[in-house]
Amino acid sequence: MDTFGVIGPGAVGSVIGESLHNSGYQVTFLGRSAGEVFVERADMQETAAFPVEAVSEVKKAFDYVFITMKGSQLEGIMPYLDQLTHEDTVCILCQNGYGQLDTFPIPNAYQAIVYISGQKKGNVVTHFRDRILILPENAGTKKLKESIAASNLELQLSSDYRYEVWYKLLVNVAINSVTALSRNTALILQDEKIQKLCKRLIREGIDIAAAEGVYFWTEITDEIMHIYAGYPPYMGTSMYYDMINEQEMEVAYIQGYLYQKSKAYNLDTPCLDTVYSLLLASEMKE
Ligand code: NDP
């Protein structure tokens, strides 16, 4: 029977681990230290508890490893990847942003576009909605899909994976930037000036995507603004929470990735350049 490791038992990781565990798969939750993680959601009678093992202590190679900490925390697990993988292990990096795999040491590694909404506070994960991972379609991901077919994790294999990557980047770039920099929730989308700024950030992202050969209809901006309009005003984004909790943000893989591409193609992206500079500046320390 295939074995599964989930490194980073946070909002996304715990929901993936829970899905696999509940369908009888052999799954190990791997965190910074040994303990427990609890998963709760509105329709659940009782909170589910899962044991967590310390990633540094586990000396077992898994067939599949889901890596589910934030992009900014990736460095912390690099020393342990060797002991957690064998030559055929397939790694699924479940993170927002893009570019993380460029320097990844595992050959069979794919990045999933994550549509799982949750939040971790202490050792309790609240799962709000969705269990969807989108991956490129290839032999390794097809095998994974077959392997976890009995779970309620929805693995979508896309033949147009790059479009999906860029779509999520466009969705993230505006809302994450404006909520983090204003240190405020989706409430700010009620302000017309913020709406305009979001639209400009999305349009600049569309131009960068086009330079990369990924094309979007111009209506996509309205579509994404419509998605934002559906967010409850009290909702924060992960970058907003990282900013107010003084934790490192995933700027490098969202705004930073877009910025590097913009510069490489010599594009004019003043809004992106501004938010990226300010986000980096907010993390500067002596
Ligand atoms: P969380 O902060 O909830 O979870 C990250 C987990 O990784 C935490 O449990 C953290 O432990 C653990 N971790 C960090 N460093 C290490 C380490 N060195 N060894 C072992 N465990 C470690 O993050 P999310 O689940 O929210 O986000 C994961 C990714 O998914 C991000 O890229 C995010 O942008 C993306 N995403 C998140 C969504 C969401 O709704 N939450 C939606 C879509 C994408 P500790 O608690 O001790 O810090």
Tell me which ligands are bound.
Answer: NADPH dihydro-nicotinamide-adenine-dinucleotide phosphate
Strand content bin: 15-25%
- Determine the N-to-C terminus distance: 51 Å
Say what the CATH topology of the largest domain is.
Rossmann fold
Structure summarized in a few sentences:
The protein has 286 residues and is an alpha/beta fold.
How would you explain this protein's 3D organization?
Catalyzes the NADPH-dependent reduction of ketopantoate into pantoic acid. This is 2-dehydropantoate 2-reductase. Pfam families: ApbA, ApbA_C. Keywords: NADP, Oxidoreductase, Pantothenate biosynthesis. It is a single chain. Helices cover 37% and strands 25% of the residues. The protein has 286 residues and is of the alpha/beta class. It has two domains: 3-158, Rossmann fold (3-Layer(aba) Sandwich), CATH 3.40.50; 164-279, N-(1-d-carboxylethyl)-l-norvaline Dehydrogenase, domain 2. Strands 1-2-4-3-8-7-6-5 form an eight-stranded mixed β-barrel. β5 (62-67), α2 (81-84) and β6 (85-94) form a beta-alpha-beta unit. α8 crosses α9. NADPH dihydro-nicotinamide-adenine-dinucleotide phosphate binds next to α1 and β7.
